[in-house]
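look at this fold:
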Amino acid sequence: MKQLIKVIDSNKFIKYLNFDYQGGQYTFIRDFLEALKRNSSITFCDIYLHEYTGKIVRALAALISENKAITSLVIHHFPSYHMDTLSKAMHSNYTLTRLELGYAGSPNKSTLRIGEVLRRNTSFLKLAAQFALQPSVHKAKAEIFQKLAGSENLIRLLMRLTRKDKNHVRELVRRAKNYVASNFFKIAGVVKENVECGKTDLLDVVQIDHLNEACWLKLISYMEICDIFTM
């Protein structure tokens, strides 16, 4: 069991995971979900568990809230009385476009909240694809693109839209990332024109001395558009 957790924690190639565990070692389940939360390659995940204790439900909520790779998650036989916990965790997830919990009852506040977030994520995915295909200084689209730039969902959608292979699509995403970095403060609304490094005699251009372009882009790599607040 420890080996399985180690594999999930470190593997960068597994895409599909079907986890069926009917035992009662709840510490193992929590450790497994913790490892899955950190995993960056698994995009399709099916989970079958014998029982959903409060701690396991909280671990599942943390998985949904913090994992940035999973796009399709099925949790079989999930109890309806714990659904509110997962629905609240969905708010900070931007990569899931499918979440099934085996719920067959009438719509309620939790299921409606989950459905709303899934629709939001699907809409954001389309906007991110538009930005990757045609980068611009549109702030909202740039923010959404940054949230989804590492998502396999975005790669798959771009492959369908362009009918190109994965390498071509990843290059599109890379170029869009570079566009955001090169036009960061213009997109964020801090300046009207670009920020330049070194000497410049151009009007409406903000100058940063003693920083070459490579250093500037490195600094920007630690920031996102949503980190900038304009007054």
The two ends are 53 Å apart (CA to CA). The chain has a mean pLDDT of 88. Residues 181 and 208 are 15 Å apart (CA to CA).
